[in-house]
Amino acid sequence: MISSDTQEESNLAQGNGLAIINSKAPFSSDFGKDALDVALIFGSFEQKISLFFQGDGVYQLIAKQDGTLVSIKDYLKTFSAFEFYDIEDIYVCQQSLVNRQLDETFHIENVNVLASVEFGLALNRHQHVLRF
Amino acid sequence: MSTLHLVRKSAFTTNDFAQCLSVLDQQDAIVLMDDGCYNLKHPLMDSLIKRANSTVSINVIANHAQARAIETLAAVNKIKMNDVVDLTFNHQKVITWQ
Amino acid sequence: MKTLAVVVTTPPYSPLTVTALTYVETALTAGINVIGVFFYQDGAMHANENISIASDEYQAIAQWQRLQQQYQLPLHICITAAEKRGIACDSVDNEQINEAFTVSGLGELVELTTKATRLVQF
């Protein structure tokens, strides 16, 4: 558990937590799963974490996918655990969806679709950023 | 809060630089490093530099550009790694685009 | 207080790792408190004792080892990433792990990011 000693007061609390940008499609590399592992560990340590999906990363969110058809453990199903880990802030880049002719049908709820400017502003509210 | 963006990939190959530009804020800084140096010759760089009233600081690690025989531009600052460290702390956070 | 945590995701034989190393060493020389380097994804390969890079090429592992010794720089390897890449982390004395590196988990990444004022990823 992270110490709650004021001297070690989480730097994450000063900005607003960690932002993870997902930029890769789900089934051709480990980046999505590796990002998810980081997100869940932060969640389990009760650290504030927000998820951003941009570029091909938006493919991780679209509905009706089935990784098992290509023998991939379907880690996307774990996204439904976000709420349990208090991961509530999920942002998708609208332009990335539009470029890929995707409509806003996601396999999880509470996804915020943001135009580029707002997407950038939301990102800016975080103390640290990792991108996968 | 201003951000330092480390751009390590060529825009001729990936979308990373374009994605970086879409979240760029007025007081941010960009450092081109590794294959990000190739972006000096990319249309996106051209439009970034030509943006009216742009206050974004654009930098390239001189050695990285020189290693690749890429000419730098007047509008882009040639810097060294200790400048990258300074920039890290002059801005509030760092995003790596790779 | 300027504190820095670094994440390395590239393998020891990648030219991209040279950039990461140069950045970290520059920060250390400048007196920045680099509280740790976390090796994730392909970065976990740094722990592999069996890696042999041609002697006329850049020796990333030896360089990290030098920084670890000179500055007591903590080098954390993500255990899951390491095991996936064939580095056995379950033996008693971790003989497959280069001794400059500490076998850790993602929890360490949480620790580092909560303590650091800057987090930089390579």
Walkthrough of the structure:
- The complex is a heterotrimer of chains A (132), B (98) and C (122).
- Chain A contains four helices and five strands; from the N terminus they run αβαββαβαβ.
- With 132 residues, chain A is an alpha/beta fold.
- Chain A is globular.
- Chain B is an alpha/beta fold and 98 residues long.
- Chain B is 32% helix and 22% strand.
- Chain B is globular, with a radius of gyration of 12 Å.
- The mean pLDDT of chain B is 96.
- Chain C has helices at 15-29, 60-71, 79-84, 106-115; strands spanning 3-8, 33-39, 75-78, 102-104, 118-121.
- In chain C, strands 4-3-2-1-5 form a five-stranded parallel beta sheet, with helices on both faces.
- In chain C, helix 3 (79-84) links the parallel strand 3 (75-78) and strand 4 (102-104).
- At the A-C interface, helix 2 and strand 5 of A face helix 4 and strand 5 of C.
Uncertain spans of chain C, ≥5 residues at pLDDT below 50? none
Strand order of the largest sheet of chain B: 4-3-2-1-5
What's the helix-strand series of chain B? Answer: EHEHEHEHE
Q: Which two protein chains have the largest interface (Cβ within 8 Å of the partner's Cβ), and how many residues from each?
A: A-C, 19 and 19 residues
Question: What is the helix fraction of residues of chain C, given as a range?
Answer: 25-40%
